[in-house]
Amino acid sequence: MAVDAVVLQALIDEKLKPLVKKIDEEAYYAEDFLYALGKAGFFASIQKDEQTTLLDELTIVQETAKVCMTTAFCLWCHLAALTYIRKTENEQLRVTILPLLESGEVLGATGLSNPMKYYAGLEKLHLSAKRVEGGYIINGILPAVSNLGNNHWFGAIAHNGEQEVMVFVNTDNAAITLKEKIHFLGVNGSATYTCKFDNVFVADDFVVTHEASSFVDTIRPTFVLYQIPLGFGVVEASIECIEKVSAKQNGCNGYLQVQADKIAEKLQYLKGTLKALVQSDEVSLQAICQIRLQAVYDTLAAVQANMLHNGSAGYIVGSVSSRKLREAYFFANLTPTVRQLEKMTQNLMIAE
Fold first, then answer.
1. Rounded distance between C-alpha atoms, residue 346 and residue 21, angstroms
2. C-alpha–C-alpha distance, residues 129 and 166, integer Å
3. Among 330, 309, 297, 229, residue whose Cα is nearest residue 261
């Protein structure tokens, strides 16, 4: 069953569009919009196969990003958390937490920025785990976890001797200290926090996997896949902005080298490639990373063209063009970052 576009657009118009300026300039966290998506059934995977679920949720991210990529990024965080619980072999975790995440009763976050860099050979793992009776004791600091608030859940990976363990924790745990991070160039309304673990006990019922390394290999393709429509939404918004000012200064914009139709042509090609990949029998990480990387470069090109077409109006604080520009640079630096993607795609190519 395809996404109900009318209901989705109504939610965006009612619960997101009026808040975009507040999100961008005052670091407002649009969690009510995310809760509303869940309550409207947009996260439900019951009676859907995996391909349909992916395509539907990719659409939701794209349409949200078209209006506000900060909130679409928060949405991606929630979908990443959903992925962990959908794919865990811990039946107890699936039974207790998955219905809450899919119904919009609670929201989730990733917590895997540092681990993804660790497995790519870029950083050390920041959390440690000690095995105790009935679970693990977790210590350490995660520098940045987004889409957090009261009673939110997020994944975390910690060293446990010779291997790593992945757990699912709640922000209301008294042994977890959150410190908000703001003053970013963009995405200030992403509810991003530093998370300090001080002897946090995690029971076995909330262990996603005792073998995090192999589990990350399983979830990484979906983790990256859900990010791609963040760029698509920003590109679509840029195309609309460019078309709105096509007659500016007696049509002078028509002389610019990059026009809306060419940007739209590239976007449609990349969207078609992504859809075909999701519908294929085997979704390879290399193919996903290549699309994700191309989406970054296409998004950066689109927002730059948008700034040129809008001229001085695009440089006014609060303008859509300037916001899309900042959103695009965040997209380029979202884990996996553009430099990490370049490394991954080349290494995967060599491996094959």
1. 39
2. 10
3. 309
- pTM reported for the whole predicted model: 0.95
State pLDDT tens for residues 1-56.
Answer: 578 999 999 999 999 999 999 999 999 999 999 999 999 999 999 889 999 999 99
Tell me the helices (H) and strands (E) count for the chain, helix number first. Answer: 14, 8
Rounded distance between C-alpha atoms, residue 235 and residue 263, angstroms: 8
Residue with tokens 């959390």: 127
Is residue 232 within 8 Å of residue 295, measured between CB atoms? yes
- With b for 16 or more beta-carbon neighbours within 10 A and e for fewer, the 148-160 pattern comes to bbeebbbbbbbbb
Quickly count: other Cβ atoms within 10 Å of residue 202's Cβ: 26
Residue pointed to by tokens 């309304």: 189
In which residue are the tokens 């094959």 written? 352
Looking at the DSSP assignment, which residues form a beta bridge with residue 164?
A: 159
Q: Which of 332, 293, 334, 8 is nearest to 147 (CA)?
A: 334
